[in-house]
Amino acid sequence: xxxxxxxxxxxxxxxxxxxxxxxxxxxxxxxxxxxxxxxxxxxxxxxxxxxxxxxxxxxxxxxxxxxxxxxxxxxxxxxxxxxxxxxxxxxxxxxxxxxxxxxxxxxxxxxxxxxxxxxxxxxxxxxxxxxxxxxxxxxxxxxxxxxxxxxxxxxxxxxxxxxxxxxxxxxxxxxxxxxxxxxxxxxxxxxxxxxxxxxxxxxxxxxxxxxxxxxxxxxxxxxxxxxxxxxxxxxxxxxxxxxxxxxxxxxxxxxxxxxxxxxxxxxxxxxxxxxxxxxxxxxxxxxxxxxxxxxxxxxxxxxxxxxxxxxxxxxxxxxxxxxxxxxxxxxxxxxxxxxxxxxxxxxxxxxxxxxxxxxxxxxxxxxxxxxxxxxxxxxxxxxxxxxxxxxxxxxxxxxxxxxxxxxxxxxxxxxxxxxxxxxxxxxxxxxxxxxxxxxxxxxxxxxxxxxxxxxxxxxxxxxxxxxxxxxxxxxxxxxxxxxxxxxxxxxxxxxxxxxxxxxxxxxxxxxxxxxxxxxxxxxxxxxxxxxxxxxxxxxxxxxxxxxxxxxxxxxxxxxxxxxxxxxxxx
Length: 570
Prior knowledge:
With 570 residues, this protein is an alpha/beta fold.
């Protein structure tokens, strides 16, 4: 270090930073052991990870939970294998998180077991099939037990080949969290552990879905949720610990002032950021509880999926595939009440996604109630047209209208249905079929009325898990609610057996709701005039009569050729 200028080298600065970050605060009394050092909610988390293989922690921001998890990582990787020791694999979503966690672990390691070596930087090879290997910066601490704590800055696929204790920090903000959890689940088979810890980032975020799955028992009895809100952390001594470390006054007045300032900083986001209440934010359009509250209609869902070789089968075999579905469709249609009016929406797909047709009935109080819905996967266009035509025919006398997705190949179905039931071109023209070319303007104008119907309890739909997923797929992108163009990355790979969805029901329902709001247009009988050639010169009545007589007296088949009676012959 230069004594004249006060400048230090990068190496000296890094050592100072490490010494500071990796040193246990002197003012915290460690003489009573770990339970006295950790706050009660931090201790509760460590107790839970010791009992359950799969732990999910939904938490408030900045309550020191990751600090406590660092102690868990050191105790796990510092222990011998017979004592339950294993590697700890920490996965944050950026380099700073990885470095901070390793510093925290180094602090605990120096306090618990000085035998741990110094923190090491290394490159982790991330192997991706079909692409060049890439090296990711990572950090690790090695212990005398033979195990190590490894902190990675991304989500390497080679996690599948590792074994140990996996920690996902701020999981709600990870890309492809579902994929990472799938890889981590394999570690559970051989005694590994998984901890997923995060604040919330919207109701539709995969992290919140995971919380609900664990709470409902879908993840089995090896999984447990630990929930710590800001208020719970404060009651457990968070402010007193902060005051001890930072030197703030530890008085009730200062404590309340600090609490008020924290709430003021987060403002409208306080419920989500501090109190573990996910909101329909981060682009989410409809909250899952709101959707579920409107799933009260007794509306059957008819699903048809045809094999890939359907078009190569004989007509008889094709009929065999179609017969059960058509029989069920006839049964449902024959049971419809013909008192209310109806409206339909049709979202077309042929290969990648689903074709969906929700049928809404308009009740006397103008509340929309779903009567039924259709889903067709891998169904050729002609069959789709026949099925949709049967549905519209069944309610034709009470049909207000039907809105069709006319984007891409959907235009052919919309056009054919328009020929059959009348194509509507504007609000002022008659016709039952409205071909919709989707645009941002259409979404901007026509999606809000559907949301209002949900919020005001003016719509009820059938209870269906796939339909719930589709409605939750709608995001508010730059202020406009729509289904994102980019599909889930896993589904886009086209793996066999994967039933792909792309918010199809949500679009179909939006179209049906739009059709239910179509204006009535009065029209009467108008005769169809015979087509006339307006460019031909006009003829007198005698000329037209002569022409007609000539047509009535065709030339004799056996007459000689033209000029046969000319003198001299040929």
